[in-house]
Design a protein that fits this description.
Chain B: This is Ion-translocating oxidoreductase complex subunit C. The complex is a heterodimer. Chain A is mainly alpha-helical. Helix content of chain A is 36%, strand content 8%. Chain B is of the alpha/beta class. Chain B contains 14 helices and 13 strands. In chain B, strand 11 and strand 12 form a beta hairpin. The chains are: A mainly alpha, B alpha/beta. Bound molecules: iron/sulfur cluster (SF4) (5 copies).
Chain lengths: 185, 513
Amino acid sequence: MVSAILTLTALVLGIGALLLWLGRRLAPDEGSLVERINGILPQTQCAQCGYPGCRPYAQAVADGEADINQCPPGGEDGVKMLAELLGVEPKPLDETRGEHKPPMVAVIDEDRCIGCTLCIQACPVDAILGAQRQMHTVIEAECTGCELCIEPCPVDCIDLVAKDEPWRWPRPDPIPLKVREAAHG
Amino acid sequence: MDDALPGDRIHGFHGGLKLQHHKQTACQHPVERPPLPERLFIAMRQHQGETGRTLVETGEHVLKGQALTEAGDDFIVPEHAPTSGTIEGVIDYPAAMPPGSMRRTIVLVPDGEDRPAPRQPLEDWQERRADEIVDHLHRSGLAGLGGAMFPTAAKLRGGWSGLHTLILNGAECEPWIACDEMLMRERARDVVEGGLILAHAAGARQVVIAIEDRMGLVEEKLREARSALGAERRVRIRKVFTIYPEGGERQIIQALTGREVPHDGLPQDLGVVVHNVGTAAAARDAVVEGRPLVERIVTVTGPGIADPRNLLALVGTPFAHLVEAAGGYREGVTRLVLGGPMSGTALPSDEIPVTKGSNCVLALTREETAPTQPTLPCINCGECVRVCPARLLPQTLFKLVEAENYDDAADYDLADCIECGCCAAVCPSHIPLVDFYKHGKDELTRRRLDRRRAALAKRRYEAREERLERERQARRAKRQEREEKLKRSETDAKSEIQAAIERAKRKKEGGND
Ligand code: SF4
Ligand code: SF4
Ligand code: SF4
Ligand code: SF4
Ligand code: SF4
């Protein structure tokens, strides 16, 4: 009897704690520095920064543990925005962590997939659909192209391809500096 | 003032340019139909919106007017077979916009018989509900013929309360383009009738047809058509000043009403809606004759064309075929432009096919396209501000985009730029201003998209973290429970043994009794 009460109490406490924690997670303080940093990060969740996702990296930057140039998907633009937010000098991207690439998306060769579910477990945004021993597919709109599913696949059947992006007007050539100086001089 | 009806007085709008209009060049001949091309390349999406599902298969024989793609909601406009023939396939084929892009395209080999599918007109349209007409126009594949190809149904639908006037825009936006003028000359009655149909569909009481002040002949024809239809009281014909870009939607509304469409509003807020005269004629064909939209008038003109003229071209006809029908190229053609010289797009190839929005092919020669003077820095002369019809600050926008300061450019209403090219035309420093604005707008679109993607990824990442945490908690709770159970069963077992011993003892004692 006593033990049953104990178990129940433990369960209730456990669930209470979980709910509390969830509540905190669901309503993060939008204005906090961590959230503002996280708002700038591209949310690719690729862990190239050395942290297991954008939010942990945001936390580390806010705590002064990590530098602002560790996120390749954010690129130079991202570094610039972080620098602006934190009031520090921008610096070049840390190339050792990876290069800035155009948006990519993972594609599974469904004929070769053996349905081991390893990729599902690796995907940080639950963008892969499938069950045990069934072929798997990537939901294109939800894939961030983080590449985390590539490594675990035992039959090497996941490929990363460029996302179908609409054509964009290029930036016109800037007005040549020489002419500029001449005009000013 | 509010009681005055659009067109009571003609007003000016801010900025704009007086340009040489060059319209006569293409108006020497009546509109003609070129010979059937060998192949038609029908782009599967010719409007702002999404592509409909393909309804035909390779090798299938189709009749003129048969639907090739399916109509969806108002932003999925169907395409129809411009003539009878065989479907050769569905391929990726070059498209005019964006430059250098490919688009899913249905290839049709005409059989030369031009056999029509059964037609389904809406003869008693006066008795029909507005919605029924809008649906019928949508099924007939109507999208704005003015160039922007906005789905006609989407513009008509909505039952805007207070909408009183349908404006038919017959003021051609740019020099050289003459397709609308020729249409009104030759099919004035159909334009007026189409205007009445569109007005009924939009729930508007009256129609105002706006033409340029130099279109004397057109005015006469429209007046005749109006009396023939007995619509003098519902249709007004108004001439606006020919000042580029008078054919822009916002500019024509301002010219007719003296009021500006609010910067984040719609024409409907002022009780008006604007359609192109070509759209009106197409609406009439669809409703009265049951003919879907499969052809349009295209002006083939410019100094680089031997015999400029207006041609009634089937959708899908390669531009090269039209040029041939207009006598071919002259010496020294350096650039082919779709649209007018101010805001048209350069065509990378003349293999690109006609779509519902193709109003003009303009061939320019070395003379017009000679390398312009080198670009110089902005001297803050303010010329661009003076001519901007959207009342923007072009030089500020340019400087912000050049400095990649897109967010500030957005604050200066970059999105309101209509890309008319007036600012670039007057800039003494020859800065390709519009290229900067196009790039800036694209960049803003990309960022919006990126932000939306990031928000989605963030939500999904957080949801996953929660799920993992929940699973961890659940596992922990289970483990605890198991341990408890184990302990409990140990104690239980002990007490059971104890009880058994006691029972045995008691028995023994009892047995001794
Ligand atoms: S490197 Fe990847 S995980 Fe790290 S912040 Fe950038 S996108 Fe997020
Ligand atoms: S599917 Fe692969 S690449 Fe795409 S988000 Fe998931 S793990 Fe990353
Ligand atoms: S890891 Fe590879 S084999 Fe396994 S389910 Fe994913 S795609 Fe299929
Ligand atoms: S292109 Fe844009 S900025 Fe230039 S004049 Fe036209 S509306 Fe104004
Ligand atoms: S017209 Fe040209 S030079 Fe003059 S202010 Fe505008 S951008 Fe500068």
